[in-house]
Amino acid sequence: MSFKQRYIGIINRYRDHLPVHDDTRIISLGEGNTPLVRLSHISRERGVDIYVKYEGLNPTCSFKDRGMTLAVTKAVEEGSMAIICASTGNTSASAAAYAARAGIQAFVLIPEGKIALGKLAQAMMHGAQVIQIKGNFDDGMRLVRQAAEHLSVTIVNSINPYRLQGQKTAAFEIVEELGRAPDYHCIPVGNAGNITAHWMGYSEYQQIGVVATRPVMVGYQATGANPFIRGEMVDKPDTVATAIRIGHPQSWKQAWMAREESGGWFDECSDEEILAAQKLLASREGVFCEPASAISLAGAMRDVSRGKIPQGAKIVCTLTGHGLKDPDVAIQQSRKPLTAVEPRLEEIKALILRAVA
Ligand code: AN7
Prior knowledge:
The chain is an alpha/beta fold. 44% of the residues lie in helices and 14% in strands. The chain has 15 helices and ten strands. The strands form two sheets. A six-stranded mixed beta sheet has the order 1-2-10-7-8-9, with helices on both faces. The protein has a four-stranded parallel beta sheet with strand order 5-4-3-6. α4 runs parallel beside α5, α9 crosses α11 and α12 crosses α13. The structure holds ligand AN7. Ligand AN7 binds next to α4, α9 and α13.
């Protein structure tokens, strides 16, 4: 029996492609190396080859960990004792965990009442200072920028360039797994950091000759939070997919460039389409992601049915966060209400027989 080398995270794995030194102290939780799951039922039914990159299986259950390991590693290297971010939830969870790991303080600004329960639990458990704002993510982001001008805290939102450097490694993994770039990469868009990071990753691998082609990048936003579809900022964003309830994206220009250079497009999905795709994925393929993540599949399926994405195409959809992040929305949308029966065999038998009838 031979032993595989222990996997210890994206910085160690992709050191040559990232801005670290030999003696940099790496702050890692073993992020990255997430599964690329082929959707067998959905691919067969729709005549395409669809994979999901299951980023919900990162240490804090979202893609943010890829960027956070590098952002916190560099913050510590530069002597910072505190990090700060605004967040719709996942960035705060990730920042809190990596700050704990590093032994520094995290301050997280979240929109009051608008973040999923799992994410709030994470930020609180990891010991972040949680600051609720009577406002939305965009208000929080403005305050974070202002606060960092006055105080010595490091911003770990995706305007921190190390975040995108770390997140580009998802594209590396996809290429290595498929042995090529996909034809289409479908991805949720909020601040547009992740679509930008993926395009950087694919482009780097093309430049150094690992692959000959890059995918068409397709970004999806919720109908109520759709600045890229409107072509202008949105002041009162709203959607059931709270992770992408963002009206003033931080990586505006870079995302337009990714769209332009890849020959891609932006489109929007309604909350109903998002929840239907989330349910379909969970019930037909066994993969549970949060609502914001499901928009990548919702959009891809619609673009396949419209012929915008051709039959036979190889498609990767990024599932940015785990379904358990947002148990409330999952339970609310279940068709049958949960009831309890007496603990007797007859009751159970009757229920099973009725279900299979
Ligand atoms: C599950 O946590 O912005 O387009 O503050 O949590 O790179 O912003 C989260 C974003 C998609 C959008 N899916 O990614 C935050 C935050 C999930 C997310 C996005 C987010 P970007």
